[in-house]
Specification:
Protein name: Carbohydrate esterase family 16 protein
Organism: Mycena pura
GO molecular function, one term: hydrolase activity, acting on ester bonds
Largest sheet: 6 strands, mixed
Strand content: 5-15%
Order of helices and strands: EEHEHEHHEHEH
Keywords: Signal
Bound molecules: 2-acetamido-2-deoxy-beta-D-glucopyranose
Strand order of the largest sheet: 1-6-5-4-2-3
Distance between the termini: 38 Å
InterPro entries: GDSL, SGNH_hydro_sf
Number of strands: 6
Number of helices: 6
């Protein structure tokens, strides 16, 4: 097994090599994203989301802005949920402006994880947003990095998209569930999803590499969530050690049936 979730760390300083932050430097974690990152409205109710674990294990403060259902921009893929550019970033900036949140750029790490709701059902996959493609959606997420940089943010972890084609909603052997009960060709959805996640991830990587020289003093790490989830799917015993039988093709009870 070859597994390296951190794909690259790039620094913008002239002549800088790929040096990231130092141990102990980070004291504050600011998170942006969708339900994968939301710490309140989470899928597996009653459990802790990854930002809580991260903050607890690292001994740092958590400032969570991710919201379930979020897309990058509701101007691109309209959904009835708060979005990154119109809601999450403005809320963060308002808290900075009124000093209810006080952060030092060199001690703060920003995580950004979007795309799942933008490209999925009731969005790009089902043609709900004419004229919008993976290109605009990916550029939008990168725009969020730029906006945060302009407001003073310097240290970023950009998390890429997981292999959504393996999830219950988009798998070839899917079944009606609480996210989609209408007829569809599950084989085609799964094939499209694989194309989409791979394309967005490569676009984001290239766009970030093009962006970094324009952001002096910034550090951006690309966290390869895609490989992490693929590896969990392929080798669940390396990650899951509870008492229930290992199962990577099912979901939390809430999404299992249309009636839930
Ligand atoms: C996770 O962290 C947030 C923000 O600090 C907090 O509101 C929430 O209660 C925490 N959740 C758990 C399960 O610890
Ligand atoms: C979204 O559209 C509204 C209305 O046109 C506009 O005011 C807003 O600035 C747009 N948001 C972004 C992030 O471009
Ligand atoms: C600061 O702004 C945030 C976000 O708009 C708001 O929720 C909070 O109540 C404000 N706090 C103060 C002290 O004004
Ligand atoms: C579903 O799509 C696959 C791939 O395009 C195709 O081979 C298959 O015949 C389709 N199934 C139905 C029932 O149309
Ligand atoms: C699972 O792994 C964690 C972390 O290594 C350990 O603390 C826990 O005891 C393990 N649980 C079981 C049931 O083996
Ligand atoms: C995983 O769970 C689903 C739903 O309960 C079940 O249909 C499937 O057979 C399980 N797979 C394994 C490998 O146990």
């Amino acid at each position: 097994m070859v597994f390296a979730p951190l794909v690259f760390v790039v620094a913008a300083a002239v002549g800088a090599t790929a040096v990231g932050v130092s141990p102990g430097q980070i004291t504050d974690l600011v998170t942006f994203g969708d339900s994968y990152t939301d710490v309140v409205a989470i899928g597996d109710l009653g459990t802790a989301a990854w930002p809580n674990y991260t903050a607890t294990y690292a001994g740092i403060r958590l400032h969570p802005f991710a919201k379930s259902g979020a897309v990058c921009s509701n101007n691109l893929t309209r959904r009835p949920f708060p979005s990154f550019l119109e809601d999450e970033i403005p809320t963060y900036l308002a808290e900075i402006a009124n000093r209810s949140l006080v952060l030092r750029p060199e001690n703060t790490l920003y995580t950004i994880w979007f795309g799942t709701n933008d490209i999925g059902r009731a969005a790009l996959l089902t043609g709900d947003d004419p004229g919008v493609s993976l290109v605009e959606v990916t550029a939008c997420i990168i725009q969020g990095v730029k906006t945060l940089y302009k407001s003073g943010a310097r240290n970023f972890i950009f998390q890429n998209m997981i292999p959504l084609e393996l999830t219950v909603l988009y798998a070839a052997n899917s079944y009606p569930n609480s996210y989609w009960v209408f007829e569809r060709n599950t084989t085609e959805w799964s094939i499209f999803m694989r194309e989409m996640t791979h394309s967005v991830n490569k676009l984001a990587e290239l766009m970030l590499q093009a962006l970094i020289p324009t952001l002096p003093g910034a550090h951006i790490a690309l966290f390869d969530s895609h490989s992490l989830f693929q590896d969990m799917y392929d080798h669940p015993a390396l990650y899951l050690n509870g008492t229930a039988p290992l199962n990577v093709t099912s979901g939390v009870p809430r999404i299992q049936t249309p009636s839930d």
